Automatic annotation (TrEMBL), chain A:
The keyword Ligase does not apply. Keywords: Cell membrane, Electron transport, Heme, Iron, Membrane, Metal-binding, Oxidoreductase, Transmembrane, Transmembrane helix, Transport. The keyword Cytoplasm does not apply. One of its GO terms (cellular component) is cytochrome complex. It is an enzyme of class 1 (oxidoreductase). InterPro entries: Cyt-d_ubiquinol_oxidase_su_1. Belongs to the cytochrome ubiquinol oxidase subunit 1 family. One of its GO terms (biological process) is aerobic electron transport chain. The chain crosses the membrane at residues 20-46, 66-91, 103-124, 136-157, 189-212, 224-245, 322-348, 357-379, 405-428. One of its GO terms (molecular function) is metal ion binding. It is found in: Cell membrane. This is Cytochrome d ubiquinol oxidase subunit I. It is a multi-pass membrane protein.
Automatic annotation (TrEMBL), chain B:
Its main location: membrane. One of its GO terms (biological process) is aerobic electron transport chain. It is an enzyme of class 1 (oxidoreductase). One of its GO terms (cellular component) is cytochrome complex. The chain crosses the membrane at residues 6-32, 44-68, 74-95, 116-139, 159-184, 196-220, 232-252, 259-279, 307-326. Keywords: Cell membrane, Membrane, Oxidoreductase, Transmembrane, Transmembrane helix. This is Cytochrome d ubiquinol oxidase subunit II. Signal peptide: none annotated. Belongs to the cytochrome ubiquinol oxidase subunit 2 family. It is a multi-pass membrane protein. Its EC number is 1.10.3.-. The keyword Transmembrane applies.
């Protein structure tokens, strides 16, 4: 990243760091908020169908988790909606009217979600069981929709549409065209699959770990299986969706593609580089493994196709190549690893027996999906730099004039680290209590 | 289009004050000494606020979304000039929301941790209410200055001073009062009801007193609320009416007529907001450079149309689902043990 000129953080860097940190924090809870209700509904369904106690215990345990995580997701989201204006007034002034539409639909989705979660959490004895079950499902569906809307808003920053830019002002605004821009489909699809995948692996991994430790084995095995069905299925689809995203980026933002591949020179038969460290000064890649022609195939389905390199752009329009490239390698690498684990999971599920080494591997992969999500967002957001609206408005022209942004950053850093720590602590307590309860019965 | 949007904006703000406000007020109540009633009060507040907590605060998000999509210039002006109070408000909102939930869902309900949650929830509720009032007061005092050269006049002066603080105190009073009226109908416990009635009276008195303070302090303001009121008979009438309703409210409160008390309390808030609106319409804010009118600062027509559609369709989902929520939880069965 283009960091710190001089001693302290300058205001632009601090604002970017604040945005990155707030979003990086929110996305964890958002992903959970979009996926957990489905896992919970699955367990709840098993309970209602078969009447088994363990599924009920599991539903309630997950429900308490969802309630805690949901609160953190909701407040951090509220912060974000303010931060769009607090940090980027120059952006919102133009972008608000153009891309506000998905946000306004998102508002509706939140409302339904908020009502449904109230009903689900507090309504155990106040509704018929299946109506109650359905409210849990509605939480998931509306959460899923809000994720799609907000990512559509983000995709517009990558593929601006629905307006004309004349003399620094937007005219001819068409909010519908803006929402359904050229990037909304690949980004939304990829993100929603990512959420399911990351949460499936995270929850599955925790329960695999507890199972291996011999705690409440029936509960934890069941939990692991439910979560991993979601996680593994998503992991198998994700490389395809990711490939689709890559093709679109090649078409819409060639500079971003070049940065994420560390592709400095425009060429035909462009190679795909695995790993490696790009050097912006010498414009070369060090230590990467090259697969000849593969990048041309992936980006344009033809080994002879020309892939635009960074040399087509003036250097001040380059995104930070190193950060973007490393983040991309991390995301893809983890994606491939999880796809293999997903395949193995279905294999063992079919055989009806999970070897301990595999459960250990699952436990070890608890954070992988979340890491991949964070890396993916770094690819998208840092890869868009120096633009806040791609090739329309520069980030530095959108930042707030308020000085001392570094304090704003520190405030949220401390606040969120505290909240994150507390959340982990609450979960440790909860897992302990539920296990004692299950083991006692 | 603009009229419809301004209506939605005002309605969301009103609903946030009424529903979110009683939620803030509950926090303030928990901050007050409660003696042996503390545990019982906590339980009632958990059950009364828990199911609607999420929905209550979305009104605020709606306000923000309508502003940035429909009136982007007003939104960005406020977010720049009032950066610091907005930040303070956010801090409070984050802490109170999470502490309320953590307290309820912590699986080990130890006295120390519960006490800490309660204190943080209460303190951050009071804190946020004060800052909400300060922000509200800053909108129309004519000190917002997007062209100011120095830090103080650009980012501090717009909200600094006794007047905004007094509005903060006034808002905190209203929230506490709303909470008492709301909670009164949420419990059968006589001791608690007595407490809510008593504190309701205190808050109500505080609202009248601090309201007077707001009036007096505003005389020294560049754009003076008091002088505007005096020059606007209709607005003056709404304010007087709101004050007079206190007496009526008293009678219902003493008899614990829950529904009527709620209606009248809500009516008072509506009247106060109406008076405010009559004074300042159609301006979203008054700056050093002049007023920012909703009519002059609106986004292009195509945007407004989409926003109105979203809001209308949204309402068609939101209101029925809210009614359903309230219906499900209004069927209160005394002594019932919740299971969660
Ligand atoms: C579990 C998480 C996860 C996994 C395993 C992957 N991704 Fe990803 N990726 C994301 C999570 C993610 C994301 C967080 O969802 C992003 C960020 C923004 C977005 O729309 O999706 C993203 C962005 C993103 C972009 C940039 C899109 C843009 O800027 O418009 C590309 C090109 C890819 N991904 C490609 C891939 C490929 C080829 C993968 C191979 C397996 C892959 N991703 C795995
Ligand atoms: C939750 C997932 C997201 C993450 C983790 C994320 C991450 C980031 C990061 C790392 C930056 C800083 C980039 C830099 O300055 O180098 C950034 C900037 C920004 N993001 Fe995102 N982002 C996410 C989603 C979104 C969405 C959904 C929106 C809007 C609808 C958005 C709007 C912005 C804006 C306005 C900036 C500041 C301008 C800029 O740096 O380009 N982001 N984000
Ligand atoms: C600039 C970017 C963003 C803004 C302004 C934003 C805004 C918000 C707001 C205001 C809430 C609270 C709603 C409530 O009270 O329930 C929220 C929650 C949520 N957000 Fe975000 N958000 C952003 C980025 C994202 C991204 C990138 C995703 C996912 C892809 C996402 C998905 C969700 C979900 C699913 C919730 C529901 C609550 C939860 O599950 O915790 N948001 N967001």
């Amino acid at each position: 990243m283009a960091v710190a000129y001089g001693q302290a953080m300058d205001d632009l860097t601090a604002a970017r760091a604040t945005m990155a940190f707030s979003l990086g924090f929110h996305i964890i809870f958002a992903a959970i908020g979009m996926t957990m209700p489905f896992l919970m509904s699955a367990a709840h369904y098993l309970h209602l169908k078969r009447g088994d106690k363990v599924s009920l215990e599991l539903t309630k345990m997950w429900m308490r988790g969802v309630a805690i995580l949901f609160a953190v997701g909701a407040v951090s989201g509220t912060v974000l909606s303010f931060e769009l204006g607090l940090l980027w007034p120059g952006f919102m002034e133009h972008a608000g009217p153009i891309v506000g539409m998905p946000f306004s639909w998102e508002g509706t989705a939140f409302f339904i979600e908020a009502v449904a979660i109230g009903l689900f959490l507090y309504g155990w004895k106040r509704m018929s069981p299946w109506v109650h079950w359905a409210t849990g499902l509605v939480v998931g569906i509306s959460g899923f929709l809000s994720g799609i809307f907000v990512v559509a808003a983000n995709s517009w920053m990558n593929a601006p549409a629905g307006f004309e830019w004349v003399n620094g002002e937007a005219t001819g605004i068409d909010p519908v065209a803006a929402m359904f821009n050229r990037a909304w489909l690949h980004q939304s699809a990829h993100m929603q699959v990512a959420a399911v995948q990351a949460v499936g692996f995270a929850v599955g991994g925790v329960h695999a770990f507890l199972y291996l430790k011999g705690r409440a084995p029936e509960l934890n095995l069941k939990a692991m299986k439910i979560a991993m069905v979601f996680g593994a299925a998503a992991a198998l689809v994700q490389p395809l969706v990711g490939h689709f995203a890559g093709e679109r980026v090649a078409e819409l933002q060639p500079a971003k593609l070049a940065a994420l591949e560390g592709h400095f020179k425009t060429s035909t038969y462009a190679p795909l580089t695995l790993g490696g460290i790009p050097d912006e000064d010498t414009e070369t890649m060090h230590w990467g493994i090259e697969i000849p022609g593969m990048l041309s195939v992936l980006a344009h389905r033809d080994p002879a196709a020309e892939v635009i390199g960074l040399d087509q752009y003036p250097k001040e329009d380059w995104p930070p190549v190193l950060v973007v490239h490393v983040a991309f390698q991390v995301m893809v690498g983890l994606g491939m690893l999880m796809a293999v684990l997903g395949l193995l999971h279905f294999w063992f599920l079919k055989k009806g027996k999970f070897p301990r080494w595999f459960l250990g591997a699952l436990a070890a992969s608890t954070p992988l999906g979340m890491i991949a999500i964070e890396a993916g967002w770094v690819v998208t957001e840092v890869g868009r730099q120096p633009w806040i609206i791609y090739e329309v408005l520069r980030t530095q022209d959108a930042v707030t004039p308020v000085p001392g942004m570094v304090y704003h950053f520190l405030l949220f850093l401390i606040l969120y680290l505290g909240l994150g720590g507390m959340t982990v602590w609450l979960f440790a307590r909860q897992i302990r209590v539920t296990q004692r309860k299950v083991e006692a019965s | 289009m603009i009229d419809i949007l301004v209506f939605f904006l005002a309605a969301s703000l009103l609903l946030y004050i009424l529903m979110g406000g009683s939620d803030f007020g509950a926090g303030i109540l928990e901050l007050l000494p409660a003696g042996e009633l503390r545990e019982r009060q906590k339980k009632v507040i958990n059950h009364a606020m828990g199911p609607v907590w999420e929905a209550n605060h979305i009104w605020l998000i709606l306000v923000v979304v309508i502003l940035f999509m429909g009136f982007p210039k007003i939104f960005t002006t406020l977010m720049v000039s009032l950066h610091l109070p907005m930040l303070a408000l956010l801090l409070g909102v984050v802490v109170r929301g999470t502490m309320f939930t953590f307290r309820h869902y912590d699986s080990i309900q130890g006295p120390r941790s519960q006490g800490a949650y309660t204190w943080l929830f209460g303190a951050s509720s009071l804190w946020s209410a004060l800052w909400l009032g300060i922000i509200a007061a800053s909108l129309n005092r004519g000190l917002i200055d997007n062209e100011a050269g120095d830090f103080w006049s650009a980012y501090v002066a717009p909200w600094w001073g006794a007047f905004p603080l007094s509005v903060g105190g006034f808002v905190a009073g209203i929230f506490g009062f709303l909470a008492c009226i709301y909670l009164l109908g949420e419990t059968e416990d006589e001791a608690l009801r007595r407490r809510f009635r008593r504190w309701g009276a205190v808050f109500n008195a505080w609202v009248v007193v601090s309201g007077g303070g707001v009036f007096v302090l505003s005389l020294a303001e560049p754009v003076s609320l008091a002088r505007q009121f005096l020059g606007h008979p209709l607005a003056m009438t709404t304010l007087l009416l709101a004050t007079l309703l206190c007496g009526v409210l008293w009678r219902f409160l003493v008899k614990t007529r829950v529904v009527w008390s709620r209606v009248i309390a809500a009516g008072q808030v509506v009247l106060i907001l109406l008076g405010w609106w009559l004074l300042y319409a159609p301006n979203g804010a008054i700056t050093v450079q002049g007023p920012l009118s909703f009519y002059e600062q609106a986004a292009p027509e195509a945007t407004l149309r989409q926003l109105v559609i979203a809001l209308l369709v949204g309402s068609a989902f939101i209101f029925p689902s809210l009614v359903f929520l309230l219906r499900v939880f209004k069927a209160r069965r005394p002594g019932e043990e919740e299971e969660h």
